[in-house]
Every structure is written in structure tokens, then in C-alpha cells.
Specification:
46% of the residues lie in helices and 6% in strands. The protein is mainly alpha-helical and 479 residues long. Strands 2-1-5 form a three-stranded antiparallel beta sheet. The protein has a two-stranded antiparallel sheet with strand order 3-4. Helix 2 packs antiparallel against helix 3. The longest helix has 39 residues. The radius of gyration is 23 Å and the shape is globular. The structure holds benzoyl coenzyme A. Benzoyl coenzyme A (BYC) binds next to helix 2, helix 5 and helix 9.
Length: 479
């Protein structure tokens, strides 16, 4: 096994804490992938950002005090590298058929294909999100927001590196081919789309962006947490470290939407009306439109958990490849041989909860954790409405609303959870999902604001800035 450190070696062409200098073959393979990555970043990464000095955090160690080291970085000279959480040499597999056996430091031959598939699926989402967001710099509401966009983009790029490292280090030639493919599929590409649905949807404006970072990055949190339990130790340690970075991405979404809500409440006061038309005329996003954006982004993200009843998921769990959320803290046999789990299903035109073998329901269980967690932001945004004495309340739609994956795909379900006819769906969907007109209106608000201390009129400034700096600090210098 390679010697691994908590400190990251920045003297290397590829910064790392996995002793790349001691493995020349691997280093050479990764160094030959690197120019393709940079080319991809130049073509499909954040538009027209070259030469900007951006106040970014870069990990210098995987210790608690080392992963958020702040300073100005000239784009695109960010040092993408390979960082794994510190090893626990006694780590044991905590679930499935191999529970109690030492964690694997190499890929077990019999699980090679499903493991590679999991890593590729995870890896595919990272560059996809950068592609989805690549034009947002042109309409940023403030320098603070522009900086956060770039921070998230460089970290998603690093998360791609994390998966590419695993493919190169552990999967030989087919791993190298998969790593190439990660740069060849593109979000929304008709011929070579990204693997998962949500990553082919456009992120056309900043409201969508905050929704994406709140709802879709939260899928990332749960999927990474499940992979951080993996019996394949390098994957577990990679995901553990990725999770530390993920929290900021969801923070950007949660506080971003909160700031939009705040501004809308202020405008309601200014125009003395809660009428969506008046709110729009006042230059803010009406709450009804925000609810439709919530409905869309929640549902495409809920799709990312896969089928409710999944033999794939059961195999991943049995094999010790992918666990449940906080697996080791759960109080059960961690094998799920006899246990049951209540699963939402559609039967005879009605939505029912039915007990199924817990082993086949691990996707749904992870989705349950996700749905509960997603409610937290809704409650916080409603807190803003309450503090302004506005009666409107945001809600999460029913998990079967607008689904394309799982048992309710192809069935029309209202946000309240009623199974409805196709004609009813057609009549109502404009009230439930963002219409072309909503998108055009939100798009019309998106003007680039980069003057120091200024912010777009449709969003309130953040309560605080980054790394103890004021919110109106010069986070991006254009030169
Ligand atoms: N779109 O048995 P099932 C992140 C396919 S986000 C398209 O349920 P499984 C991030 C499925 O592949 C986290 N296809 O499958 C966030 C399967 O295909 P086959 C990303 C879908 O494997 C923001 C079939 O349907 N990480 O990190 O149990 C910014 C049967 O389904 C979808 C992961 O997802 C879909 N939504 O579950 C940046 C973790 N859902 O076998 C980054 C790795 C299902 O019939 N992936 N299918 O050809 C997994 O664990 C699993 O692949 C899934 C699917 C949970 C996604």
C-alpha cells in the first residue's frame, strides 16, 4: 500500500496525499489525463473567467484546520489534486455479507464491475454540474456570489479528479477509458449525455442555481455519505474528504434562496401588495414562482435516488460497496436479512405505504433521509416569510410528483399526492412547474452586477462574507 499523509504535497504537478511520486506509472497516467482535463475546463468550465484573481479556499491538508486555506488564485491556475481522508488501518467493513472483515485496499475481483459503475456514475455528475453552470458568471448578482460560483466549480472539478484517481489507480485500462469518457459526455448533449437525468437539465439562471445547490448537491451529500461507508477503503476515504467540501455548496443554495425570499418580502412592503404581478413589477421574484422552482428542483433531485425497489441497490449493499446514511450509527444487524422498510408505491391508482424487504429498499431509505433533510431549508425560508408577517408558506411537493424514475414515473401525481388524469395534469402543470413565461421573467432579472458593494435588485445581500471578510469584499479581481 502507498504511504499516505494528511499533508498535501504541492511541489508535485498534481498535488496529492497519496504518494504519487512513489508510483511512476500512475503518476504518468494521471499526468497524461491532466491536459485533457484543462482543455475541458477551458472549453466547458466557467465562461470567460481566465485571468481573474478569485478569493478561494484550497485544501492544504485533510486535517480539520487544513482543508479550508484561503487566498487569491488566478483562474484557471487552481491546483486540482488528489486528497483522501486519513486511513484507519484497522477499519472493518460495517455492513452486508462481508461485515466484520477488514476493509479492502484493493478492488475485490468479483465486485469490479459494479464498483466501477458506482464510481463512474458519481464521477460523471461532477463535471456535469460545472457544464450546467458555465455561463452563470455573465449574470452574477454580486462579486460575493461570483466567488461562490467559482469556488463550487473548482471543487466539483476536484471531485472529478477524486473519481478519476480511483479509476486510474485501481481499474487498469478500462478505468483509464472510463476517465476519458468522463470528459467526453456532456450535460444535455443529444449524442453523449451525462448519465443521470438531473445533470442534463439546464441551469439557466441564478434562482435555478440556488435551487440546484440546495436540492441536487444535497443528493450528492447523501450519495457520498453512502459511498463513504464503502468496504472499498480508497472510495470511502475519498468520499469522506469530498463531504467536507460539499457542505459549503448546500450553504450557498440555502442562503441564496433565503436572500431571494428576503428581498421579495421587502419588495412586497414597498409595493404594499402580495400580488405576484405587483411583486414582479417591483423587480422581485414572486413567491408562487419560487414554489414552482422548488417543485421542479426537488423532484428531479428525488429521481436521483433510483427505483424504490432496487436489486442493484440490494447487491451494492450485500457486497459491502455502498451502505446507508450513517451506516455505522444505525442500530440493527447491518445485513438486513429479515427486516422490512415502508416504501411508497402506487397501487390501483392510489399511493400506499407498503413494507418491503429492507435490503431491496435501501434507495428509498436514503431518499427518506434526503426528504427529511430537504424540509429544513423550507422551514428556514418560511421563517423569513413569518418574520415579515407574510402568510404564504413554501412546501415540498409529494415525492411522487413529476417523477421520471421509479414506480410513479409515467403516472400523474399532484404536488399534494393525488393520482390524477392526464387531462388534469395538462390543465394544472403550468401552476405547478416553472412555465416558459416564469423562466423568461426570472431570466429578465439576471443582470451582471460586479461593482464593489453593489448587489442585484432581486436578492438581498448575505448576512456575512467568506472567511470573516465583509460581504462586499473584493472577492474577484478582474485585472
Ligand atoms: N437518471 O435499480 P436502480 C452529486 C437507472 S449527486 C437516469 O434504482 P441504482 C453532485 C439506473 O442507473 C450524487 N438513470 O439503480 C450533485 C439503472 O440502470 P440499469 C451522484 C437512472 O443503481 C451536485 C436503472 O435506472 N452519485 O454528487 O440502484 C453537483 C434502475 O435503477 C436514474 C450517485 O448517484 C436517474 N436519476 O440507483 C455535483 C452515486 N436513477 O442498471 C455533484 C452513485 C436510476 O437498468 N450511483 N437510473 O442500466 C448510484 O448509487 C446509483 O447509480 C443510483 C441509481 C442511486 C443513481
Amino acid at each position: 500500500m502507498a504511504i499516505e499523509h494528511s499533508n498535501i504535497d504541492y511541489s508535485e504537478r498534481i498535488p496529492n496525499n497519496v504518494d504519487l511520486s512513489g508510483n511512476r506509472r500512475l503518476r504518468r497516467a494521471l499526468e497524461s489525463w491532466q491536459p485533457n482535463y484543462i482543455k475541458w475546463w477551458q472549453e466547458l468550465g466557467p465562461d470567460r473567467s481566465t485571468g481573474f484573481d478569485v478569493y478561494l479556499r484550497t485544501a492544504i491538508s485533510v486535517e480539520r484546520d487544513g482543508w479550508a486555506n484561503f487566498g487569491f488564485v488566478k483562474m484557471p491556475e487552481y491546483r486540482w489534486g488528489i486528497f483522501l481522508a486519513k486511513p484507519d488501518l484497522d477499519r472493518k467493513i460495517t455492513f452486508g455479507d462481508h461485515k466484520g472483515e477488514p476493509a479492502w485496499q484493493d478492488v475485490p475481483g468479483e465486485y469490479r464491475a459494479p464498483l466501477r459503475r458506482l464510481i463512474v456514475t458519481q464521477g460523471d455528475t461532477e463535471p456535469a454540474s460545472v457544464e450546467q453552470q458555465n455561463h452563470l458568471g455573465a449574470t452574477c448578482p454580486s462579486l460575493y456570489d461570483l466567488r461562490n460560483l467559482f469556488q463550487i466549480n473548482v471543487e466539483e472539478g476536484r471531485h472529478l479528479w477524486a473519481m478519476v484517481y480511483l479509476l486510474h489507480a485501481y481499474f487498469g485500462r478500462d478505468g483509464r477509458e472510463e476517465a476519458e469518457m468522463l470528459l467526453e459526455r456532456h450535460s444535455g448533449d443529444a449524442d453523449k449525455p451525462r448519465i443521470l437525468g438531473a445533470f442534463n437539465e439546464p441551469t439557466p439562471d441564478w434562482l435555478s442555481y440556488y435551487m440546484f445547490t440546495y436540492f441536487t448537491d444535497r443528493d450528492g451529500k447523501y450519495q457520498l455519505a453512502a459511498l463513504a461507508e464503502s468496504g472499498f477503503d480508497p472510495l470511502a476515504r475519498t468520499c469522506q474528504f469530498m463531504l467536507t467540501e460539499e457542505a459549503h455548496h448546500m450553504f450557498v443554495g440555502e442562503t441564496g434562496i433565503m436572500r431571494v425570499v428576503q428581498r421579495t418580502c421587502e419588495v412586497m412592503k414597498e409595493v404594499r401588495s402580495e400580488d405576484p404581478k405587483r411583486v414582479r413589477e417591483g423587480g422581485a421574484v414572486d413567491l408562487e414562482t419560487m414554489q414552482r422552482y422548488i417543485n421542479l428542483h426537488f423532484t428531479v433531485s428525488v429521481d436521483l435516488f433510483g427505483q424504490e425497489i432496487s436489486t442493484n441497490a440490494a447487491t451494492y449493499f450485500n457486497s459491502g460497496l455502498k451502505g446507508r446514511y450513517l451506516e455505522s450509527r444505525l442500530d440493527d444487524d447491518h445485513r438486513l436479512t429479515d427486516s422490512l422498510w415502508p416504501v411508497h408505491l402506487v397501487q390501483d391508482g392510489r399511493i400506499v405505504l407498503e413494507d418491503w424487504p429492507a435490503l431491496t429498499a435501501v434507495n428509498e431509505r436514503l431518499r427518506d433521509d434526503y426528504v427529511k433533510d430537504s424540509q429544513r431549508g423550507i422551514d428556514r425560508w418560511n421563517g423569513v416569510l413569518e418574520s415579515h408577517a407574510v402568510d404564504f408558506r413554501f412546501t415540498l411537493p409529494h415525492r411522487f410528483f413529476n417523477r421520471h424514475i421509479g414506480t410513479s414515473a409515467g403516472i400523474n401525481v399532484s404536488p399534494h399526492g393525488e393520482v390524477i388524469s392526464e387531462s388534469e395534469w395538462q390543465a394544472q402543470q403550468g401552476a405547478w412547474l416553472p412555465s416558459a413565461e416564469d423562466q423568461a421573467f426570472v431570466g429578465s432579472l439576471m443582470n451582471r452586477v460586479t461593482e464593489l458593494g453593489k448587489i442585484a435588485a432581486w436578492i438581498a445581500p448575505p448576512v456575512r462574507g467568506i472567511d470573516g471578510k465583509p460581504w462586499d469584499y473584493e472577492y474577484v479581481r478582474f485585472n
